[in-house]
Design a protein that fits this description.
The protein is of the alpha+beta class. The chain folds into two domains: 3-53 and 264-406, no CATH class; 94-227, no CATH class. Helices cover 56% and strands 16% of the residues. It is built from 14 helices and 14 strands. The strands form two sheets. Strands 1, 3, 4, 5, 6, 7, 8, 9, 10, 11, 13 and 14 form a twelve-stranded mixed β-sheet that branches. It has a two-stranded antiparallel sheet with strand order 2-12.
Length: 409
């Protein structure tokens, strides 16, 4: 028999049991609806969490100097970083990070900002931290080489000190010295709160302004894509141990924070969360499929005479099997698609609500996302579930003897 024949048969049978089919399909639709919402929320949480790290290169490593066994501090210099960058493959950018020993007053005209964090950094700091500029430019190699009195300010400083005035070209007082503003940061990831309260000045300018040596206890690296962060971390530790004469095994001499390693941990965590959400959604879907199976059993019982007549007229067991399975799959698939469409619609509405409640996107929950790959997997699950739900009713229909079926009232 043709596929069109089976479609017509399914339609006529479901039309006769319209209310029962709708109620049974609602369970499947509800399960898929919840699955879509759960997966969308899981992806939104994943992207929202990683958005918090948007201000830092995913494949970067930060280092802090500690103390040698003798008690002397471990400090780093720009020439040391240059040699190390050429010596160790995989390092794309390297920058020193220096901070003053005490609080620094930052002011513009009559406005003052006491919470500012002044940082002396290299020209590659923007690439290492992936800073997003709103206006102007970041510090350049020429600024650093010539120790220019220029600075880049964070969004909070711009908003409080300059208000609606364009800060580019204005002069900002930093610890009594005047620096010309050449760039401002955009209002980006929430993890960048320190950067948004910071004033960035060239490293050599910082050393001259605050009478500090050309050595500091912090530097940051950004690695080339594909570079193994853990391997390079060990190579850097070994290289610095030789150059600065401390024991490589002395963990208190050099501290490191590996963003690549932390990213892998987060990926593993969210992989587990996705599996859990799929498990919850599939359990809800199975509850609806059980309803489909029960409905098909009732329908087989109600249509015993019809099945007997079909067998007498020459219908094979295979045709009866296909008839029952096609109805079960049709109900599951149709109800599932309705639930999926409703879920996608609900995700759209929830995203609109999130945009209204959090226009700056500072929450951990980003936009809910339901991937196309998840939709394909869900549809395959619906087809399999519909077939499984129809197996027992189909076997029961096949086992009905025509003589017994014709004698059934």
């Amino acid at each position: 028999m043709s596929a069109l024949y089976y479609v017509e048969e399914v339609y006529q049978n479901l039309r006769q049991h319209k209310l029962r089919s709708v109620l049974t399909g609602f369970g499947v639709a509800w399960g898929i609806f919840i699955l879509v919402i759960l997966l969308g929320a899981g992806e939104g949480f994943y992207h929202g969490t990683f958005r918090k790290f948007a201000g830092y290169a995913k494949n970067s490593v930060w280092f802090w100097g500690g103390q040698r066994v003798s008690g002397h501090r471990v400090l780093f210099s720009a020439p040391l970083l240059d040699k190390m960058q050429h010596k160790i493959e995989g390092i794309q950018y390297a920058t020193l990070v220096a901070r003053p020993y005490g609080p620094v007053l930052v002011s513009y005209l009559e406005e003052e900002y006491n919470q500012a964090a002044v940082q002396g950094v290299g020209a590659s700091y923007a690439q290492v931290s992936q800073l997003v500029l709103q206006r102007g430019r970041f510090l350049s190699e020429r600024d650093e080489t010539n120790a220019r009195l220029v600075c880049v300010v964070g969004y909070d400083i711009q908003r409080i000190l300059f208000k609606k005035k364009d800060p580019i070209g204005q002069f900002l007082s930093v610890g009594g010295m005047y620096f010309q503003v050449v760039g401002t940061l955009a209002k980006d990831a929430a993890t960048n709160r320190r950067e948004q309260k910071s004033v960035f000045i060239p490293f050599h300018t910082f050393c001259e302004t605050f009478n500090q040596s050309a050595e500091c206890d912090e530097f940051r690296l950004a690695l080339y894509p594909g570079a193994m962060a853990q391997t390079i971390e060990q190579e850097v530790r070994a290289y610095l141990a030789r150059q600065l004469r401390f024991e490589q095994s002395n963990e208190k001499a050099l501290y490191a924070f590996n963003f690549g390693k932390e990213t892998e941990k987060f990926n593993a965590l969210f992989h587990g969360i996705r599996l859990f959400l799929w498990a919850v959604g599939v359990c809800l879907l199975l509850s609806g499929v059980v309803g489909v199976g029960n409905m098909m059993l009732v329908q087989v019982k109600d249509r015993t005479q019809e099945i007997g007549i079909r067998r007498v007229l020459g219908a094979s067991a295979r045709e009866i099997l296909v008839m029952i399975l096609s109805e079960s799959i049709f109900i599951s698939l149709t109800a599932g698609i309705v639930g999926m469409v409703a879920g996608v619609g609900a995700i759209y509405l929830l995203n609109r609500v999130l945009d209204y409640m959090d226009p700056t996107q500072s929450l951990l929950m980003a936009h809910l996302v339901f991937k196309l790959s998840s939709a394909v997997v869900a549809l395959l699950l619906l087809i399999i579930a519909g077939a499984v739900a129809g197996i027992m009713p189909a076997k029961r229909a096949i086992n009905i003897l025509p003589i017994n079926a014709l004698n059934t009232e």
